[in-house]
Amino acid sequence: xxxxxxxxxxxxxxxxxxxxxxxxxxxxxxxxxxxxxxxxxxxxxxxxxxxxxxxxxxxxxxxxxxxxxxxxxxxxxxxxxxxxxxxxxxxxxxxxxxxxxxxxxxxxxxxxxxxxxxxxxxxxxxxxxxxxxxxxxxxxxxxxxxxxxxxxxxxxxxxxxxxxxxxxxxxxxxxxxxxxxxxxxxxxxxxxxxxxxxxxxxxxxxxxxxxxxxxxxxxxxxxxxxxxxxxxxxxxxxxxxxxxxxxxxxxxxxxxxxxxxxxxxxxxxxxxxxxxxxxxxxxxxxxxxxxxxxxxxxxxxxxxxxxxxxxxxxxxxxxxxxxxxxxxxxxxxxxxxxxxxxxxxxxxxxxxxxxxxxxxxxxxxxxxxxxxxxxxxxxxxxxxxxxxxxxxxxxxxxxxxxxxxxxxxxxxxxxxxxxxxxxxxxxxxxxxxxxxxxxxxxxxxxxxxxxxxxxxxxxxxxxxxxxxxxxxxxxxxxxxxxxxxxxxxxxxx
Length: 493
Prior knowledge:
Layout: H1 62-73, H2 76-83, H3 87-91, H4 104-131, H5 141-145, H6 161-176, H7 178-202, H8 206-224, H9 235-244, H10 255-262, E1 269-270, H11 272-277, H12 280-286, H13 296-314, E2 322-323, H14 324-330, H15 334-337, H16 353-410, E3 418-421, E4 424-427, H17 428-444, H18 455-459, H19 462-469, H20 483-490
Antiparallel strand pairs: 1-2, 3-4
Helix pairs in contact: 1-4
């Protein structure tokens, strides 16, 4: 969090240029009155002071932070203490202790804000768990809330001194890391661009590669051929803005008037956004969005480099804000009157050869890891396809078996009516099967009398056996002359 330690001090003015800069403004008072020639600067006469818009800091707890600041601003005691507390005391937590003296209404509202923030974090934790598929796993919210250092998770119900102290320190640390992260991100961008160019050259033959290299060098030379760039924050640079942007005579340049003209929100400070706006004219000398050789990502990096340089030179209390007093002191320095030349990005490569080598090795390792994962995924896919083929084959076999059963069921024949032979009721189909079996035995056995005495015949009724062989079944069926002989044999004891 950035704090203003001047008489008109404002706490934590948040800005966002692209993504993340500072915090929202807590206490914004009137701009410092300055003298000016109203005949030359007519537009300043009707300038109305409006409270600056609250700008998103880019922090994931931005809304909670701004709401806490808004309510603390409403307590007069806290405002008075803020005016009399310097930057280091604020960072060390002395201002946070004044929370015990704010009004009951403000404390109650801060309690409510904290409960809402804790509930929001719990909802985010639950949503993340659902996405990762852990619906059946119990969530330890207390343990997970510990990672959010800007609030005291052990007391989720009330906003205490520790909460304000944590909020100040977390926001300060997070925003101080912004410039370093931005530099690292731009460095990766530049190395990736160079890597892609080298990889493209590998796909070309010798003649095409030579032409591509010549074209690349030509673009670099064309980009570097631009008017002289003034040192950011120098008298020459500001006079150029005074003349070309403000339409005023450079001979009448007045630092106080210049400050008031470009303090667009009228709060008595140059914030980072207002400073960056001063460098537009210089950047237009180097970059043109219609030119192939000009990279707009590099233009924004150049803008931020200029802002960072001026802040380091002018912002004496390191609150990332330039007060009128700080600005006027800087205009009296030798660096302001006789600055060194400014080295642009093309004169300062963002990475070293060693960093580029390590970057490409890292990319190669990532590519190898991705290739191995792709191979493993392909093996898994082949195995799944094989298993699917087996399942399909089993499904076909099962369907064929079901179809066969259905055909057998549809072809089933009802049994024929029963026939009566000598008082014994036997199905005709059984008699036919017995006869067929007997004939098959006769066809495969030698013609001996004993061969015909099969076990089956011993169990058949005599009349049935005679009938199968076409012989007479009773004495009455014998020819004349044989009946008496048969009768005599039957009478033998």
